[in-house]
Amino acid sequence: MKKTYSRFRKIAFIEGISFLILLGIAMPLKYFADMPMAVTVIGGLHGVLFVGLAVAAYLVKDQYNKSFGWGLKVFVASIIPFGTFYMDKEWKKEEAAVTA
Length: 100
Prior knowledge:
Elements: H1 2-32, H2 37-63, H3 68-79, H4 83-99
Helix pairs in contact: 1-2, 1-4, 2-3, 3-4
């Protein structure tokens, strides 16, 4: 199903944005403006998106018989700032190849 891969890429993109907001806005607000609630809210949202990414990656891995290494790349991309955006180029090519 094409939607599985497409949904995975969308979740990865949104998760990447939430990670950047957490690191670039919420963390500075917590430590420099004494506003810890920013990390609580954004961190919680990011956590939900991270779990969603893990589930979506599992579904893609299972459906398209991806390797363990592919799943590891997804994990590493999700913990490096801008990682999911960088990997999206590769994921877009993979999606086109498996849905063609």
